[in-house]
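Q: Give me the 3D complex with zinc ion.
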Amino acid sequence: MEFLRRQLDDEEAAACGRCDNCAGARFDDQVSTAALDTARGELGRPGAEVEPRKMWPTGLAAVGVDLKGRIPTGELSFSGRALGRLSDIGWGNRLRPMLAAQTQDAPVPDDVANAVVTVLVDWAKGPGGWASGNADAAPRPVGVVTVASHSRPQLIQSLGSRIAEVGRMPLLGSVTYAPGAAEVRISRTNSAQRVRALHEALVVEPELAEALASVGGPVLLVDDLSDTGWTLAVASRLLRRAGAEGVFPLVLAVQA
Ligand SMILES: [Zn+2]
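A: Here is the predicted complex, encoded as structure tokens.
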């Protein structure tokens, strides 16, 4: 304030005597080892909730898609999990370079796969999880489905295989892109345009539909990155309509 007042030629500009500059900071800059360890533990702990989209975006009718309002219960996914938020320190720092546009596709690294397994176990045993033993526990997933990717097929397929192997569940197949459809990448187009593109591009082929019917239970839906949540919403809808009794989205990272 003194500085500002001087700039404004205030002749009475003077130290206030009350602020940290005048009175000295009231807090020291030392942090206890215990507090540091707790913070490190929190930041390094894998897992973030992925809330499913519950409403279709407005304006779908205008772009020729007959979906609107609340997503029907029979087409919804359960809430999902991500290993981390892309914006966070901790796992975000590990995931950002892995999921950067210029990074070459490769199978999922061991430390990341192991951390995803930890997330899965915490999820299963957590409140309402399928291994929680609670009366309101979710049904146990009985298979793994991946989201096809043109850009990171090895990453997603290897992650799907690993989860199937660890969870002793079959890898049922992929929600794929219709022949000729371009992958719907992260873009700045509006939600309605994005849902329209996904709605036209994503398909559950008959082999996957048969596999879904044969396992008779919910499935884990594996993808690399969820930015707007529309890919998971459209893929979950397709899986539910094809006979999946439930969908648990599981991604490496969420954008938000
Ligand atoms: Zn002051």
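A quick observation: The beta strands are 48-50, 80-85, 143-147, 171-177, 202-203, 219-226, 247-254.
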